[in-house]
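Archive entry. Fields below.
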Amino acid sequence: MSTNGMESWAVDLAEVGAVYPFPGTEFILFLAGLAFWIIWHVMQLRGEKTEVGEEMDADQSGDKAREAIGRY
Amino acid sequence: MGNNLDALTTIFTEFYYWVTVVFMFLIHVGFCVYEVAASRRRNHVHTLMKNIMVIPLVTVTFFFFGWWIYFAFPNGPFIYNGLGIDFEAAKGARPWDPAMGTNLQDHINGVFWAAFLLFSWTAASIVSGSVMERIQSGAFWILAVVIGSFAWIVDAAWGWHWDGWMVKILGYHDAYASGVIHAIAGGFALGVLIVLGPRLGKFRADGTPRDIPPHNPWLVTLGLFLIYTGFWGFYAACNVPIIAPEVIDGEIVGVTWTATNIYLAPTTLSAITFNFLMSLSGGLMAAFIVSKGDPFWTFSGGLAGIITASAGNDLYHPIQAMFIAAFGAWAAYKLHYWVERKFKIDDAVGAVAVHGYAGVIGLLICGFMLWGQPSSPYAGYATINPLGMFIGAIIMFGVLGFLPGYIVAKILNAFGILRIPAKVELEGLDFASDQAYRAAIDDVVAAEQALVK
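PREDICTED_STRUCTURE:
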């Protein structure tokens, strides 16, 4: 038993196709990959919301903002 | 060369490796840029020179004995065939052999030697960043030769050679060097760091760590970009570009020519192109989230991702590679800070985590993902399996990485040449040359100003 069905390389390569592990799971992998990508955006947007919130709370006087603008 | 097809194949293979070497040069450029950027201004010149001198020192020693080790020690020695130092196979790698020079009967030795040599530089350069700003250059250069021209090439003979004992007996599989370059270099760096100790000021009196930010974060990321670029060459260099089945002693039947990995088992450039980019992406995405968008760790996470997936990137599906990479990048980040807090290890660039821990995790995952697959086209070899990969990870990170690093650092420390004195560390390694530089400027400026009428 092997995860890609290949027990040996003593074969004619002209008759071999995909050799990645767990062939047949491609569509499930695709769905999992899609979920990973979407979850990434959700997490990133949440993180950015927190970051922006923290920046809104900082430097209420505006002194440091003027300093940052001055530095260009 | 027997006929025109042989000649074409040979010249193509020679050119192929030559191109990979040129690409891989960018890894060292990247490491130099990255390390200088991560160091503080008063240490720039020493930091740069420490890394650049890896090139000549590892090159000459790799010519003198490193290349010979690769062909002489696939058997250990003493593992599967008595004493078994293969003097015959290593004959053409002796520095005095006619094959080690201009020789019209051999078009491969030099470019193949150079491809391996560039891996040697990389192994040493990984260690270089970890120990910066307090190690003596002379001590580092001795350590660089130990890992670059000895430890890593022993591991390559054992686990990155079609006839290596780890491949035969353990079913070890490490196509793009999660273990044979990255885990060993990370383990070696950890061994040195334990003896060397942290930079002054790294830890507060209560033991909590301080952040020592890079002096130029943007240059750090540029260095990492260059490393990514060189990594492409590294991946290509790990393949045999084209080979006929009969060359693999007829183990593969039929007449279809193929690219292979280092074990002469089939793969394709297309596969590793898919997997390189998907693992880079998985690593970047996970590292961005876990580090909250920190550029240093996001870029390093991309690297950690590729490194984690590298052991099996000749065979993984691209989406598998992406997930494996994402996990590796997340784990490397978490482990770096846990080890720093718990054991007071000052790894200045996170190399132990990005290369060492990610490399080990990659080997362990590969054992499960490729379980039961042939490790070689040759009959009688163990198949890839989790236990063999676990033992392989211990050998790479611990036996050939950590132990030599720790022992040699202890010896250097006993001679008082491992670490620079505290006074020099505080004023900066470049203090004397900075003073001379400024004095020279003052002198010439004063002289020229005096000439103005």
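CURATOR_NOTE: The radius of gyration of chain B is 23 Å.
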